[in-house]
Prior knowledge:
The chain is α/β, with parallel strands linked by helices.
Amino acid sequence: MPASTSIEDSENxxxxxxxxxxxxxLKITLISLHGLVRGHDMELGRDADTGGQVxxxxxLARELASHPNVRDVExxxxxxxxxxxxxxxAAVEEVIGENAKIxxxxxxxxxxxxxxxxxxxIEMFIDQTLVHFRRTGVPSLIHGHYADAGLAGxxxxxxxxxxxxxxxxxxxxxxxxxLLLGKSxxxxxxxxxxxxxxxxxxxxxxxxxxxxxxxxxxxxxQQYELYDHYQPDRMEVIxxxxxLSLFSPPAxxxxxxSNDGVxxxxxxxxxxxxxxxxxxxxxxxxxxxxxxxxxxxxxxxxKNLEKLVEVYGESPQLQEAxxxxxxxxxxxxxxxxxxxxxxxxxxxxxxxxxxxLYGKVAYPKTHAPDEVPDLYRWVASKRGVFxxxxxxxxxxxxxxxxxxxxxxxxxxxxxxxxxIIANCNNGLLVDPxxxxxxxxxxxxxxxxxxxxxxxxxxxxxxxxxxYSWTQHANxxxxxxxxxxxxxxxxxxxxxxxxxxxxxxxxxxITDLDNTLTGDxxxxxxxxxxLNANENIGFGISTGRRLDVAMDLIExxxxxxxxxxxxxxxxxxxxxxxxxxxxxxxxQIGYAWEPTKVRSILDPMPGVNLQEDRxxxxxxxxxxxxxxxxxxxxxxxxxxxxxxVRAKVVLSLGMxxxxxxxxxxxxxxxxxxxxxxxxxxxNVLVAxxxxxxxxxxxxxxxxxxxxxxxxxxxVLRDRPRVYFSENSHARGILEGIEYYQFLGNIVxxxxxxxxxxxxxx
Length: 760
């Protein structure tokens, strides 16, 4: 079972009795951000982002929602308004089953974007989702899918203090490792795939998750172990299911099979119609009576489709035994595909021509999702074989679908296929780079009738025994119940109250040192501005300790702030009496181990503990010598490998703060907005150093003063982040004018789309 990750235990409740925070049935939020997600006619294979994950999350949502202990399931994804895609993806809500629905959250540009272009907008999704949760209530648990949703879900879970589940689907470190074996350089991979950002997102998701759902044991042992925050005790192998009502064998194929709904009299079989795509396939083929080798994958270099054509082209025996059918997504015009997809299909066509395979290979341009089950049955009825030759395959839903219809499989020996064939014994594993192994596996299935029958029957049995969605949901909810039974009720579970802070409708929150200070004339002007506009609240965000910060504020003769966030985003106080935020205080110490932090960092060269006045209950402060000390990434790695869950914040290249995972200006500012019902568009935040980065992202109105540290350059070209030409308080005043913050607020930089993101 996943390890408990709560800072305090609730009452001792059975996992099967414990449901949501209020004792009722669960509300589960799944998040899957990229690609095109809808509940019908899924456009699987349309591009590299619309594949098996889309089908997985939709079917998971439906199955979980059918469970009696689940009140409802929502699948959050991105709203897309784009004439190049269907209007379905613009609908805010789509019902996909009883108690299950897709909710589309608008963030970033309206048009469809590939996943690598979504990173600058993740914080906007977080803020928009908080608005959604304000209307609908805090979920019992959050489950992020893939790195982008993994990062967003982790931040939401940290902020709202609800349990978090993560599924990576495919992992950046694995992709990086595999692609570096080819012709790609690290620089070209980074430009194209943003792997540094992706891998750090995965690390944060793993650090936050109470449970990581994997499809296979190999994922845990050989893929997740590549990560600094590798915690195998939190990882559970729960294989995805296959819809057995759709993927059943053709009538007459399994008369002698009896297992879980497939009986001797043919129960569980399907009398199928010849699929419409069969006509599209036959027009490519000279001899349509032959069995077929079927592969189904989007045109992606990792799917290794060119290798399959090469093997077939170099084997007269395979060409004699079977035709080759390649379902490579859908396309109306090859030139409209992403460059990677264009290249793969161009390479396939070149190889067909090179080996003169005309009349032997079919590669139809389109297919409808509802044709796929009958396509498998049609190939199975002609004693064909299904192959997945991918270089790496995290799981392989197509292998389950093929197996469930009685089609033997030949599959890559990497990833999910290993577990599938171990459980079902319905085919062979092959090295995807070994031509002879691939050829041998296909020929065995095509030329040995008894072996074909044995594998076919075994696949029908095995998928029903090991890979039903019901079984998946039961195990998932068992483990989720265990996590919830050991989790404290979140401090923010109740709906946020309407605004109860003093009488103002907007607020300025600024860093203190070198942002607000440093220009006495501009500071006086800023002071006068606050005094002249009673509707504007004043907040301070600082790395200083509370008492030290208040001493400076009084020396500067500043108004006492309406809110003050101190100690690098770990303490929150309000109003003239500096009233502590108790709900923030209740959860900030989650997983905090300052003694362990010091035992790891104190011995490091060039890492020097700061004076006592810089230390606090939830902050360990160091000053580093960059010439001698490990890098920020190396420090993170050391803490993660030791199992320490903490944030590492570097400011001005020398000041290093280690704080709890639920601390930081990003979470503290969002906590304030959530708790008091403030709109981010009415909040202007200003800073100059790494401590401030978190609060400057998202839907707040960000201002970076000109005297900023070089670490702030990562924010340049981010939406809603304005870089002032002036320094210190003069830069804040410039930002106030830029956003017209005193009047009718405008946001000129709301839709920044840097060329480097879009063209990568």
